[in-house]
Design goal:
267 residues, nine-stranded mixed β-sheet, alpha/beta, globular, single chain
Length: 267
């Protein structure tokens, strides 16, 4: 099991990062990726989203001890950030490629795995993993940007043993029943990356509960090894994604990432 910490690689080779986020638990990681990029002193971060006002929320649906404030309102960070608001990933976004020009890597956190019982928008505007990333892939290829780190989920596919934990079977059951639409959206997204020319990494975090406090570390699941823990904070997932954007270790594949082995599930 490979581990990492918040120090990770430097951002010396990453001048510009593009970060995309939507709504839902997986997409929440995208907001945190902005902060993780700033931690690494990435020179400039372009943020593309339908929901820029979410950065004003006091609660980012996470267990981060000090909470969050909008980094665009922070004088120390504002000059390093550019916000691009779009109307909907369901619509074709004109001139999208210009926002990817000169980027070293892209972190894409679109889509989710919620059934939408509490927030109906999740099943109307929120199912954008495929539609959004289809446009992102096209723009990246046109801008000659190759590295993409995108978020997905474990338990999507039949017989998936990438995380040797009982919760994999439970998640698979959820995806086959009340989370079918989210499953199809994420599967379609993964297929697009597999068919693309990009040097992508699909990240499948375990845990990411709203109450999980960041540990400043992450652990990658390795084949045949003990299961990583299912109690990972959204901020630690974001740090892993930024580290992989800056200094890739896995190309054209996927990785399950979690907390220290033996850590109990959150919630």
């Amino acid at each position: 099991i490979a581990g990492g910490d918040a120090a990770g690689p430097s951002a010396a080779t990453c001048r510009k990062l593009v970060v995309l986020y939507g709504i839902g638990g997986l997409s929440d990681v995208g907001r945190h990726a902005i902060m993780a990029g700033l931690e690494k002193n990435v020179e400039h971060i372009t943020v593309i989203t339908e929901y820029p006002d979410m950065l004003d929320d006091e609660n980012w649906e996470c267990g981060c001890i000090d909470g969050h404030t909008n980094p665009f309102n922070d004088e120390a960070h504002a000059s390093k950030l550019t916000m691009v608001k779009i109307d909907s990933w369901k619509n074709e976004q004109p001139n999208l490629v210009e926002h990817f020009q000169g980027a070293d890597a892209v972190i894409s956190c679109l889509g989710h795995r919620q059934p939408g019982w509490k927030n109906k928008e999740l099943v109307t505007k929120g199912l954008i993993a495929r539609d959004g990333n289809k446009q992102v892939i096209k723009a990246m290829e046109e801008a000659n940007v190759s590295r993409d780190v995108t978020i997905s989920s474990f338990g999507l596919n039949r017989g998936d043993k990438t995380w040797p934990h009982w919760a994999s079977k439970l998640m698979r059951l959820f995806f086959l029943t009340f989370m079918r639409k989210a499953r199809k959206d994420l599967q379609a997204m993964e297929k697009l990356f597999n068919e693309s020319s990009l040097d992508y990494l699909i990240v499948k975090p375990v845990g990411i509960g709203e109450d999980v406090v960041p540990a400043g570390r992450y652990f990658q699941q390795e084949p045949g090894k003990e299961a990583v823990g299912g109690n990972m904070a959204k901020m630690d997932v974001a740090r892993f994604m930024v580290d992989e954007a800056i200094q890739p270790t896995t190309v054209r594949g996927s990785k399950v990432v979690g907390s220290a082995p033996g850590t109990p599930m959150s919630g």
